[in-house]
Amino acid sequence: MQEKSVYSxxxxxxxxxxxxxxxSLYVNMIVFAPVLGDVAATLRVxxxxxxxxxxxxxxxxxVVLSIGGVVCDKYGITTALVLGLLCTSVPAxxxxxxxxxxxxxxxxxxxxxxxxxxxxxxxxxxxxLWFPPKEQGLASGVLFGAISIGSTIGVIxxxxxxxxxxxxxxxxxxxxxxxxxxxLLVLLFTRQAxxxxxxxxxQAAMSAGSGDIxxxxxxxxxxxxxxxxxxxxxxxxxxxxxxxxxxxxxAPVPMGVGLPPVSAGNLSLALTSVGIFAPFVGGLFFDKIAxxxxxxxxxxxxxxxGLFTYLILKPSVFGNVSTLAVCLMxxxxxIPFMNASLSATIAVNYPLSIIGRMxxxxxxxxxxxxxxxxxxxxxxxxxxxxFFTALALISxxxxxxxxxxxxxxxxxxxxxxxxxxxxxAN
Length: 426
Known about the structure:
Layout: H1 2-6, H2 11-30, H3 36-43, H4 47-50, H5 52-75, H6 77-93, H7 95-98, H8 102-120, H9 123-130, H10 133-165, H11 168-174, H12 177-189, H13 196-208, H14 215-219, H15 222-250, H16 261-272, H17 274-289, H18 295-311, H19 315-318, H20 321-349, H21 355-384, H22 388-405, H23 418-425
Helix pairs in contact: 2-6, 2-8, 2-10, 2-12, 5-6, 5-8, 5-21, 6-8, 6-11, 6-12, 9-20, 9-21, 10-11, 10-16, 10-17, 10-20, 15-16, 15-20, 15-21, 15-22, 16-20, 17-20, 18-20, 18-22, 21-22
C-alpha cells in the first residue's frame, strides 16, 4: 500500500509517452529499408551508397547520445523528448521538398538520427525516478519494445504507402505523423514532477553508497567500458538487422533474396515483430529469474541473433519461406531480449545525478558499433555485390559480445536498488 503512495501511478503515463516517442523514432529510421532500391534509383546512387542513408542515421545517434544526457540531466525529461521528436519529425515532413538530392536527404537523416540521442538519454531517469527497482526491468522492456513496434509499423506501412502514393518521399512525410502525436503525449504526461520522497530516498541512498561518483570518475571505471563494449556489439546487431535484412530480402538475386518490396516488408515482420515482446520478456527475466544479473540474457541474446542471422544467408533457408520466417524470428528475438538487462544494469550502477549522461554515454559510444557495421556492410555490398559479408559480420559481433559479457562482474550498489526498495516496502 505504501509503495503506491511513493511511486505514483502516473508513472504508467510517463512510460506511455516515452514508449510512443521511441516508437516514432524507429518508424522514421526503418522506412527507407524496404524501398531502398527505389530510393537509390531516385537519387542516382548504387545500393551500397544508399545504405549510407541508414549509416548516417546511426552515426548521428552515436554522436548525439554521447551528449544527449547532458540535455536531459540539465533541462529534464520533457525538454529532451520534445527536442528529439522535432529532430525526427521535421526532416520527414519536408522530405517531398528535399528528396531528390542525395546530400540533402543525407543531412536530413543525420538530423533524424540525433533524435534518438536525445530521447534515449531519458530512459535512465524514467526508470530511476518513476519506477521501483522490482519494476525497472519490466519498464525497460516496454521502452525497448517500442523500438520493434516502430520498426514493425515501418516495414508494414512503408511499402504499402509507397505503392499507394507512387513516391517514397511522400511516404516518408506521412510516416512523420507518429512523431507529432508523440510530442502531444510528452507535453501532456511528462511535465509532472516525480515523487519528492523517491528523489529524497535516491539521493540519500547515493550519498550512503556511490553518490560521490562524478561523471568523470564513472568514465574511469572498467565496468563502464565493459558495458559500453557489449553495447557496441549489441548495436551492431540491432541496426544492421533492422536496416539491412529488409533490403537483403528485397534486393535482386544474386545480391539478395529477390522478393518484391511488399513481400519483403511483410516477411520482415518475422524479424521485427518478435522484438515487441522480447524486451518485455527480457525485463521480466532480468527481474524475476536473473535477479539483476545481466549475463544470462545477454549471452542468450547474442547466441540467438548470431546463429540465426548466419542461417538466413544459406540458400536452403532463404529458399524456403517457412524456414526463413522462423530463422528471422529467432534472429530478431535475441538483440531486443538483452536490452532490458543492459539498460537496467546502467540504471542501478550509477548515481541519480549522472544516470542520464551514463545512459547516453554507454549507448552513445556503443551505437558507433551500429554505424560501423552499416558502413562496413555498405562497403562490402558495393564491392562484392552481395549482402553476405554485411550480415555475416553480425554473427562475428555476437561472438565478441559473448566473450565481453563473460568478463562482467556484477556489483549493484544499494543506492538505487536495495535502499529504495526498502523505503517502498516499509
